[in-house]
Amino acid sequence: MSTNQDHDMQRGLKNRHIQMIALGGAIGTGLFYGSAETIKLAGPAITLSYMIGGFVIFLIMRMLGEMSVDEPVSGSFSHFAYKYWGEFPGFLSGWNYWFNYVIVSMAELTAVGIYINYWFPSIPHWASALFFLIIITAANLVNVKMYGEFEFWFAIIKVVAILGMIIFGLLLIFTKINGQATGFSNLWIHGGYIATGWWGVILSLVPVMFSFGGIELIGITAGEADNPKKTIPKAINQVMWRILIFYVGALTVMMILYPWNQVGMDGSPFVQIFSKMGIPAAASILNVVVLTAALSVYNSGIYSNGRMLYSLAQQGNAPKSFAKLNSNGIPVRGVLISSALTLVAVILNYLIPGKIFMYLMSIAIIAGIINWTMIIFTNLKFRKAKGQAADNLEFKTPLHPISNYAAFIFLAIVVALMSTINDMKMAVYILPVWILVLWIGFKFKKSSESKISPAQKAK
Hints:
By secondary structure, the chain is mainly α. It is built from 19 helices and 2 strands. The chain crosses the membrane at residues 20-36, 42-61, 98-120, 126-144, 156-177, 197-218, 239-258, 278-298, 330-352, 358-382, 402-421, 427-444.
């Protein structure tokens, strides 16, 4: 094992890798399973919810992109928060991002066992999870290009599947290939387009924001992009409209094909709709897709967590051992620790089946909101530090600083909404406790540093 003084991060990620990495982090459980909760809350107006949430996330991504293009480093907004805001913001944003993706990875890895059981019910959940954990972790330890290829093909499967569902759905809507053309009436005959009222649409913004969690992974890849000043802006601008097509387009077709109030909460709405419409083999095909989606998000989680621990170690906010890279420029220890922690989820879901998944989701939403809030305010600090030089930035945030404050107000509203939802309240209560834990950890770190002599620091 060599230190980062001997080896640097390798710039082996192409534009196609970076775009698919971002898609891989954002198209997963939120669409294939979590959208059932959003449909329940908003009805056909789920499409409006995704457009609102997607626009806010686009603004936040532009804020991150503005900084990442100017300074393409691994660790992304943790580095920027540390440099432009202060030591504690850098400490908080880095550890919170790492914690967020550990929680998300736990949920996704556990889901893998459930999906495998669809075909092979005799295989224990833990065995499937352990098998894929080893495979994905090994791929992340080879080199960054191997990770990029894994994620590229994982994401391709999801993208092709969603586009296939949209095209097939349009054929069902406009032609008689399944007996008769469906038409558009399901959008309004079951209570209207805004069937649950505006309050339902507003509440639906909470699970919608979980769906967009992970899109900020583009910023983490900046340190390993082969041409970050070109690939990062292109990836951010292209990925956002693609996600809106995949979410809004796919869900619009679903709402047209089938009555929204008959979808239910007992599985993926995509599987339910095509199965209930009598489409042969739909469940098996879609099970391949949801399995791939879970593995894709887990792959992205292991990648980003290893890089975040590397960045934290470089800042002095994590043990120095995490700042070591192997000969291929991989932060091996960070990858292995992050991978090992997700294994805890398999045990937890075995011991506490059922409810643990929803709790993990709500905590992930809160952690995601902390990440996005840090990006918003770090971008304000970044602009202030740049002064007049900010006029020459290559990839500017639209409507800065109005967009920053508007995005923050939106996120604050989402947190307030979570406090009104029974299954989400716990996460809101955890928010101040989690920040306090990080503050105590930061103070302990500072106290430990003060006891180190100048001679020891020089070493």
